[in-house]
């Protein structure tokens, strides 16, 4: 894991405090608010640049575990998100909607780091990237209308318009930039030289967007210091339930350990930046929804670190079968690590 990846959670936390400090400066709230969406769109363009959309069909090479991951992420988890909100946040509709938005958007890049730490199947996890992204684009408005629509009244057209603005424009820009870079300099140059710099830019733009959000809505946020504690229980239950479910499904499928580790990571990690962008565009008058999506990574990143270490312990205990030996063209047997 690169140093900047290790520092992402402290950087986000620092951005929160910087934003709150700047929010006390008279006349700064309004211009700070205008910066949030452009910064997030720049960040999302960088995030989408990492997703190899042209390899969409690679998921068919890992059918069983990939389809199990998609079922957990896009069928089970939205229902769990609504239920957890109903159990813990019925009297706080903004936090409930924020929880739904956070949990229905599976991660499209960050979970690869923890999959690698846990010695998971990176080929499987990478193959899921474009599928997870595409399904989010299609289903996020549906989830909002069906699930969040039971909490507050929603404007369907405004939701669709927000998704188009915040997701489709950065996605289109990323596809165009990737195509130009590959044509001019090649895939190796893009992966080795450009994407590491882009990743640094992603974290920077996300931190600036979070600082701007807290600067523009500092008063509302300071008045609700209990939000973190209220979200802690439903989020920790989500991680515990989905971790256990992934392990049970992996055992039922008799999947090898690397596939199980990938299944766990892809069903735990969430895509808070995408959800944050939509929240800011669709619910500008509800800053607590956006606050939920800022709090999410502060809890998620330490949890993923612990989960990856738990998976390594499970690997050492031999609870799941090792990968089958792979026969190479030279007839030599290569046993995977």
Q: Would you write up a description of this structure?
A:
This protein has helices at 3-6, 8-23, 29-49, 63-88, 93-103, 111-117, 122-146, 156-185, 187-216, 218-222, 227-253, 257-268, 272-282, 287-317, and strands spanning 326-327, 333-334. With 337 residues, it is an all-alpha fold. The chain has a single domain, classed as Na+/H+ antiporter like fold, CATH 1.20.1530. It has a two-stranded antiparallel sheet with strand order 1-2. A hairpin with a 5-residue loop joins strand 1 (326-327) and strand 2 (333-334). Helix 4 (63-88) packs antiparallel against helix 11 (227-253) and helix 6 runs antiparallel to helix 12. It is globular, with a radius of gyration of 20 Å.
Question: What keywords describe this structure?
Answer:
disordered C terminus, two-stranded antiparallel ribbon, single chain, mainly alpha, 337 residues, Na+/H+ antiporter like fold, 14 helices, globular
Which structural class fits the helix and strand makeup?
mainly alpha
Strand content: under 5%
**What is the number of independent domains?**
1
Strand adjacency order, main sheet: 1-2
